[in-house]
Amino acid sequence: MASFGFLGRSFSILRGAAGVLLASLGCLSQSYEVSAPELARLAQLPADERGEHVRVTQQTSFGNDLGDRSLPFTDADVALLIETQYDPGYQSAGWRRRSSHHDVALDDDSDDDSDADGAAEEALAAAVVVVAAAATAALTVGVTEGARFDGWMRTPEQHPVLLVDRWGRRRWERLGSLSLGDLHDVDHGVLADFSDDLEPLERHPLDREGFVYQLEFGAEPAPFAGPSLAISGRGGVGFMPSQHYGFLLGAAFSTARADEPAALASDTTLSFDHRVFLQAEAWPLSAGRWHLGPYAELGYAWALADDIRGSRGASGPMLALGAALQLDWTTRLALTLRGGAAWLPNIDGEQRLAANDYRLAPSLTLGVSIY
Fold first, then answer.
1. What is the pTM assigned to this prediction?
2. Domains, the chain
3. Is 370 exposed, middle or buried (0-12, 13-18, 19+ CB in 10 A)?
Protein backbone atom coordinates (compact mmCIF):
# COMPACT_ATOMS: atom_id res chain seq x y z
CA MET A 1 0.00 0.00 0.00
CA ALA A 2 1.09 3.54 -0.61
CA SER A 3 1.05 4.41 3.06
CA PHE A 4 3.99 2.09 3.71
CA GLY A 5 6.12 4.26 1.43
CA PHE A 6 4.90 7.29 3.31
CA LEU A 7 5.81 5.63 6.61
CA GLY A 8 9.26 4.75 5.34
CA ARG A 9 9.98 8.35 4.34
CA SER A 10 8.54 9.57 7.65
CA PHE A 11 10.82 7.32 9.67
CA SER A 12 13.83 8.57 7.69
CA ILE A 13 12.90 12.12 8.65
CA LEU A 14 12.43 11.09 12.27
CA ARG A 15 15.84 9.40 12.40
CA GLY A 16 17.47 12.67 11.35
CA ALA A 17 15.38 14.74 13.74
CA ALA A 18 16.06 12.34 16.60
CA GLY A 19 19.80 12.58 15.95
CA VAL A 20 19.69 16.36 16.22
CA LEU A 21 17.50 16.18 19.32
CA LEU A 22 19.66 13.63 21.08
CA ALA A 23 22.79 15.63 20.29
CA SER A 24 21.34 18.85 21.65
CA LEU A 25 19.44 17.65 24.75
CA GLY A 26 20.25 15.99 27.96
CA CYS A 27 23.80 16.82 29.03
CA LEU A 28 23.94 17.72 32.71
CA SER A 29 26.61 20.04 34.06
CA GLN A 30 28.57 19.94 37.30
CA SER A 31 27.16 23.28 38.43
CA TYR A 32 24.24 23.70 40.81
CA GLU A 33 21.95 26.71 40.96
CA VAL A 34 20.97 28.25 44.29
CA SER A 35 17.92 30.53 44.33
CA ALA A 36 18.04 34.08 45.70
CA PRO A 37 15.72 33.24 48.66
CA GLU A 38 17.95 30.30 49.56
CA LEU A 39 21.05 32.53 49.43
CA ALA A 40 19.31 35.01 51.74
CA ARG A 41 18.48 32.20 54.18
CA LEU A 42 22.07 30.98 54.19
CA ALA A 43 23.46 34.48 54.68
CA GLN A 44 21.59 34.73 57.98
CA LEU A 45 23.06 31.50 59.38
CA PRO A 46 26.36 31.21 61.27
CA ALA A 47 29.20 30.71 58.79
CA ASP A 48 29.99 27.20 60.01
CA GLU A 49 26.38 26.06 59.41
CA ARG A 50 25.80 27.45 55.93
CA GLY A 51 27.07 24.46 54.00
CA GLU A 52 25.21 21.79 55.97
CA HIS A 53 21.92 21.81 54.03
CA VAL A 54 21.86 23.87 50.81
CA ARG A 55 18.91 23.67 48.39
CA VAL A 56 20.23 23.33 44.82
CA THR A 57 19.08 22.45 41.31
CA GLN A 58 21.54 20.90 38.86
CA GLN A 59 22.05 22.96 35.71
CA THR A 60 22.02 21.59 32.16
CA SER A 61 24.62 22.36 29.51
CA PHE A 62 22.32 24.96 27.94
CA GLY A 63 21.57 26.68 31.23
CA ASN A 64 25.03 26.49 32.72
CA ASP A 65 26.54 29.72 34.06
CA LEU A 66 30.03 28.18 34.13
CA GLY A 67 30.27 26.85 30.60
CA ASP A 68 30.05 23.26 31.92
CA ARG A 69 33.80 22.91 32.45
CA SER A 70 36.28 23.15 35.29
CA LEU A 71 37.61 26.62 35.97
CA PRO A 72 41.14 27.27 34.64
CA PHE A 73 42.41 28.29 38.08
CA THR A 74 42.83 26.83 41.52
CA ASP A 75 40.56 27.42 44.46
CA ALA A 76 43.09 29.84 45.91
CA ASP A 77 42.78 31.99 42.78
CA VAL A 78 39.02 32.27 43.16
CA ALA A 79 39.39 34.84 45.92
CA LEU A 80 41.36 37.06 43.55
CA LEU A 81 38.59 36.93 40.94
CA ILE A 82 35.90 38.54 43.10
CA GLU A 83 34.66 41.37 40.95
CA THR A 84 31.79 43.83 40.92
CA GLN A 85 31.25 44.13 37.20
CA TYR A 86 30.57 41.57 34.53
CA ASP A 87 33.08 41.40 31.72
CA PRO A 88 31.46 40.39 28.40
CA GLY A 89 34.86 39.67 26.89
CA TYR A 90 35.57 37.12 29.59
CA GLN A 91 32.30 35.42 28.85
CA SER A 92 33.08 35.15 25.18
CA ALA A 93 36.30 33.34 26.11
CA GLY A 94 34.29 30.41 27.31
CA TRP A 95 32.25 31.23 30.39
CA ARG A 96 28.94 30.76 28.59
CA ARG A 97 28.51 28.23 25.87
CA ARG A 98 26.32 29.41 23.04
CA SER A 99 24.13 26.79 21.50
CA SER A 100 24.22 26.45 17.76
CA HIS A 101 21.21 25.88 15.61
CA HIS A 102 21.44 23.24 12.90
CA ASP A 103 19.01 23.39 10.05
CA VAL A 104 18.06 20.01 8.73
CA ALA A 105 17.25 20.20 5.04
CA LEU A 106 14.71 17.65 3.93
CA ASP A 107 14.03 16.97 0.29
CA ASP A 108 10.38 16.63 -0.53
CA ASP A 109 10.41 13.89 -3.15
CA SER A 110 7.08 12.39 -2.20
CA ASP A 111 4.43 11.69 -4.77
CA ASP A 112 0.75 12.16 -4.21
CA ASP A 113 -0.21 8.52 -3.69
CA SER A 114 -2.79 8.97 -0.95
CA ASP A 115 -5.62 7.99 -3.26
CA ALA A 116 -4.62 4.35 -2.91
CA ASP A 117 -5.26 4.36 0.84
CA GLY A 118 -8.34 4.63 3.00
CA ALA A 119 -8.95 7.56 5.31
CA ALA A 120 -8.16 5.54 8.44
CA GLU A 121 -4.95 4.19 6.88
CA GLU A 122 -3.73 7.70 6.04
CA ALA A 123 -4.64 9.01 9.48
CA LEU A 124 -2.77 6.14 11.10
CA ALA A 125 0.33 6.85 9.00
CA ALA A 126 0.32 10.49 10.10
CA ALA A 127 -0.24 9.48 13.73
CA VAL A 128 2.81 7.21 13.66
CA VAL A 129 5.00 10.20 12.78
CA VAL A 130 3.50 12.38 15.53
CA VAL A 131 3.74 9.63 18.15
CA ALA A 132 7.35 8.82 17.24
CA ALA A 133 8.33 12.49 17.55
CA ALA A 134 6.49 12.82 20.87
CA ALA A 135 8.11 9.65 22.19
CA THR A 136 11.57 10.86 21.15
CA ALA A 137 11.02 14.12 23.00
CA ALA A 138 9.71 12.31 26.09
CA LEU A 139 12.68 9.93 26.07
CA THR A 140 15.36 12.60 25.77
CA VAL A 141 13.79 15.04 28.24
CA GLY A 142 12.81 12.21 30.58
CA VAL A 143 16.34 10.80 30.69
CA THR A 144 17.71 14.25 31.52
CA GLU A 145 15.14 15.04 34.20
CA GLY A 146 15.40 11.53 35.61
CA ALA A 147 19.14 11.94 36.22
CA ARG A 148 19.07 15.62 37.20
CA PHE A 149 19.67 16.33 40.89
CA ASP A 150 17.20 18.68 42.57
CA GLY A 151 17.43 18.73 46.33
CA TRP A 152 19.82 19.42 49.20
CA MET A 153 23.60 19.24 49.29
CA ARG A 154 26.39 19.61 51.81
CA THR A 155 29.21 21.93 50.77
CA PRO A 156 32.41 23.21 52.44
CA GLU A 157 31.96 26.38 54.47
CA GLN A 158 34.28 28.47 52.30
CA HIS A 159 33.18 27.02 48.97
CA PRO A 160 33.12 29.68 46.18
CA VAL A 161 29.69 30.75 44.97
CA LEU A 162 29.12 32.65 41.73
CA LEU A 163 26.53 35.42 42.15
CA VAL A 164 24.55 36.31 39.00
CA ASP A 165 22.47 39.48 39.09
CA ARG A 166 19.36 40.29 37.06
CA TRP A 167 21.45 41.93 34.29
CA GLY A 168 23.73 38.94 33.85
CA ARG A 169 26.72 40.45 35.66
CA ARG A 170 28.63 37.98 37.80
CA ARG A 171 31.06 38.03 40.69
CA TRP A 172 32.59 35.48 43.03
CA GLU A 173 32.08 35.32 46.77
CA ARG A 174 32.63 32.62 49.38
CA LEU A 175 29.68 30.94 51.02
CA GLY A 176 31.00 31.55 54.52
CA SER A 177 31.49 35.29 53.98
CA LEU A 178 28.15 36.08 52.29
CA SER A 179 26.11 38.91 53.75
CA LEU A 180 22.65 40.20 52.90
CA GLY A 181 24.28 43.30 51.40
CA ASP A 182 26.11 41.08 48.89
CA LEU A 183 22.77 39.81 47.58
CA HIS A 184 21.34 43.12 46.35
CA ASP A 185 19.84 42.57 42.84
CA VAL A 186 21.19 39.00 42.78
CA ASP A 187 19.02 36.66 40.67
CA HIS A 188 20.68 33.39 41.70
CA GLY A 189 23.94 31.81 42.74
CA VAL A 190 25.93 28.88 41.36
CA LEU A 191 27.98 26.26 43.19
CA ALA A 192 30.47 24.43 40.99
CA ASP A 193 31.66 20.95 41.91
CA PHE A 194 35.36 21.68 41.34
CA SER A 195 36.76 18.51 42.92
CA ASP A 196 33.80 16.37 44.01
CA ASP A 197 33.50 18.29 47.25
CA LEU A 198 29.71 18.73 47.00
CA GLU A 199 27.84 15.93 48.75
CA PRO A 200 24.25 15.16 47.68
CA LEU A 201 21.99 14.56 50.68
CA GLU A 202 18.41 14.00 49.53
CA ARG A 203 16.19 14.81 46.58
CA HIS A 204 13.31 17.23 46.76
CA PRO A 205 9.87 15.56 46.48
CA LEU A 206 7.94 15.78 43.20
CA ASP A 207 7.47 19.41 42.21
CA ARG A 208 4.62 19.88 39.73
CA GLU A 209 4.53 23.66 39.55
CA GLY A 210 5.31 25.06 36.09
CA PHE A 211 5.38 23.50 32.63
CA VAL A 212 4.20 19.89 32.26
CA TYR A 213 4.54 17.34 29.43
CA GLN A 214 2.68 14.01 29.44
CA LEU A 215 2.91 10.95 27.19
CA GLU A 216 1.08 7.66 27.82
CA PHE A 217 0.20 4.47 25.92
CA GLY A 218 -2.32 1.73 26.61
CA ALA A 219 -5.45 0.03 25.29
CA GLU A 220 -9.21 0.38 25.00
CA PRO A 221 -12.01 -1.71 23.44
CA ALA A 222 -12.04 -1.61 19.64
CA PRO A 223 -15.24 -0.44 17.89
CA PHE A 224 -15.73 -3.88 16.30
CA ALA A 225 -18.32 -6.56 16.82
CA GLY A 226 -16.96 -9.01 19.36
CA PRO A 227 -14.17 -8.70 21.94
CA SER A 228 -11.07 -6.94 20.61
CA LEU A 229 -8.66 -4.27 21.82
CA ALA A 230 -7.39 -1.10 20.20
CA ILE A 231 -3.95 0.40 20.82
CA SER A 232 -4.30 3.84 22.32
CA GLY A 233 -2.05 6.75 23.22
CA ARG A 234 -2.40 10.22 24.64
CA GLY A 235 -0.22 13.23 25.30
CA GLY A 236 -0.45 16.82 26.39
CA VAL A 237 1.42 19.98 27.29
CA GLY A 238 0.27 22.53 29.81
CA PHE A 239 0.90 24.44 32.99
CA MET A 240 0.52 23.62 36.68
CA PRO A 241 -0.10 26.83 38.65
CA SER A 242 -0.14 24.76 41.83
CA GLN A 243 1.26 21.52 43.15
CA HIS A 244 -2.29 20.18 43.29
CA TYR A 245 -3.97 21.15 39.98
CA GLY A 246 -3.23 22.11 36.39
CA PHE A 247 -4.49 22.41 32.81
CA LEU A 248 -3.23 20.81 29.60
CA LEU A 249 -3.96 20.93 25.89
CA GLY A 250 -3.87 17.34 24.71
CA ALA A 251 -4.55 14.84 21.96
CA ALA A 252 -5.32 11.12 21.96
CA PHE A 253 -5.82 8.32 19.46
CA SER A 254 -6.81 4.66 19.28
CA THR A 255 -6.51 2.25 16.39
CA ALA A 256 -7.41 -1.40 15.72
CA ARG A 257 -7.13 -3.69 12.71
CA ALA A 258 -9.40 -6.66 12.03
CA ASP A 259 -7.66 -9.79 10.75
CA GLU A 260 -10.92 -11.39 9.58
CA PRO A 261 -13.27 -8.61 8.41
CA ALA A 262 -15.79 -11.08 7.02
CA ALA A 263 -16.63 -12.14 10.55
CA LEU A 264 -17.48 -8.60 11.60
CA ALA A 265 -20.91 -7.05 11.31
CA SER A 266 -19.62 -3.98 9.50
CA ASP A 267 -16.78 -5.66 7.55
CA THR A 268 -14.42 -3.04 9.02
CA THR A 269 -10.75 -3.70 8.35
CA LEU A 270 -9.20 -0.72 10.19
CA SER A 271 -10.52 1.80 12.71
CA PHE A 272 -8.85 5.00 13.81
CA ASP A 273 -10.21 7.45 16.40
CA HIS A 274 -8.50 10.69 17.37
CA ARG A 275 -9.40 13.71 19.46
CA VAL A 276 -8.10 16.99 20.81
CA PHE A 277 -9.15 18.32 24.20
CA LEU A 278 -8.58 20.64 27.11
CA GLN A 279 -7.73 18.64 30.21
CA ALA A 280 -8.08 19.64 33.86
CA GLU A 281 -6.47 17.47 36.51
CA ALA A 282 -6.13 17.58 40.29
CA TRP A 283 -3.98 15.73 42.83
CA PRO A 284 -5.74 16.04 46.22
CA LEU A 285 -4.59 12.73 47.75
CA SER A 286 -1.02 11.76 48.60
CA ALA A 287 0.64 8.99 50.60
CA GLY A 288 4.41 9.15 50.52
CA ARG A 289 5.49 8.89 46.88
CA TRP A 290 1.99 7.91 45.68
CA HIS A 291 -0.59 10.44 44.47
CA LEU A 292 -4.19 10.00 43.33
CA GLY A 293 -6.57 12.42 41.65
CA PRO A 294 -9.35 12.91 39.09
CA TYR A 295 -9.15 14.37 35.59
CA ALA A 296 -11.62 15.58 32.96
CA GLU A 297 -11.32 16.20 29.21
CA LEU A 298 -13.57 18.29 26.99
CA GLY A 299 -12.91 18.52 23.27
CA TYR A 300 -13.73 17.28 19.77
CA ALA A 301 -13.30 13.77 18.32
CA TRP A 302 -13.16 12.13 14.89
CA ALA A 303 -13.84 8.47 14.05
CA LEU A 304 -12.63 6.87 10.82
CA ALA A 305 -13.05 3.34 9.49
CA ASP A 306 -11.90 1.51 6.36
CA ASP A 307 -13.84 -1.47 5.07
CA ILE A 308 -14.22 -3.47 1.89
CA ARG A 309 -16.46 -0.75 0.39
CA GLY A 310 -14.30 2.29 1.22
CA SER A 311 -14.01 4.71 4.12
CA ARG A 312 -16.54 6.01 6.61
CA GLY A 313 -16.32 8.74 9.22
CA ALA A 314 -18.06 10.61 12.00
CA SER A 315 -17.19 13.46 14.33
CA GLY A 316 -18.55 15.40 17.26
CA PRO A 317 -17.87 16.83 20.73
CA MET A 318 -16.37 14.47 23.31
CA LEU A 319 -16.12 14.21 27.07
CA ALA A 320 -13.85 12.01 29.19
CA LEU A 321 -13.66 11.45 32.94
CA GLY A 322 -11.38 9.32 35.06
CA ALA A 323 -8.71 9.07 37.73
CA ALA A 324 -4.91 8.83 37.67
CA LEU A 325 -2.42 7.20 40.02
CA GLN A 326 1.03 8.75 40.08
CA LEU A 327 4.36 7.57 41.50
CA ASP A 328 7.17 10.04 42.23
CA TRP A 329 10.27 9.00 40.34
CA THR A 330 12.38 12.13 40.74
CA THR A 331 11.68 15.79 41.50
CA ARG A 332 10.53 16.47 37.93
CA LEU A 333 9.52 13.02 36.66
CA ALA A 334 6.60 10.76 37.62
CA LEU A 335 5.06 7.54 36.33
CA THR A 336 1.33 7.92 35.67
CA LEU A 337 -1.32 5.18 35.42
CA ARG A 338 -4.58 6.62 34.07
CA GLY A 339 -7.96 4.92 33.86
CA GLY A 340 -11.16 6.46 32.57
CA ALA A 341 -13.84 6.47 29.91
CA ALA A 342 -14.60 8.76 26.96
CA TRP A 343 -17.84 9.39 25.12
CA LEU A 344 -16.83 9.26 21.45
CA PRO A 345 -18.70 9.48 18.12
CA ASN A 346 -19.65 6.07 16.75
CA ILE A 347 -19.77 5.21 13.04
CA ASP A 348 -22.91 3.69 11.54
CA GLY A 349 -21.95 0.62 9.57
CA GLU A 350 -24.67 1.14 6.98
CA GLN A 351 -24.56 4.91 6.30
CA ARG A 352 -21.29 6.37 5.16
CA LEU A 353 -20.09 9.63 6.73
CA ALA A 354 -22.93 9.50 9.23
CA ALA A 355 -22.72 9.23 12.99
CA ASN A 356 -25.04 6.63 14.43
CA ASP A 357 -24.65 7.65 18.09
CA TYR A 358 -22.00 7.85 20.76
CA ARG A 359 -20.14 4.96 22.33
CA LEU A 360 -18.51 4.68 25.75
CA ALA A 361 -14.80 3.85 25.38
CA PRO A 362 -13.05 2.89 28.64
CA SER A 363 -9.24 3.04 28.49
CA LEU A 364 -6.15 2.34 30.58
CA THR A 365 -2.81 4.03 29.84
CA LEU A 366 0.63 4.14 31.44
CA GLY A 367 3.32 6.74 30.81
CA VAL A 368 5.39 9.59 32.13
CA SER A 369 4.66 13.11 33.34
CA ILE A 370 7.59 15.54 33.11
CA TYR A 371 7.40 18.75 35.10
1. 0.65
2. 29-96+146-203 (no CATH), 206-370 (2.40.160.20)
3. buried
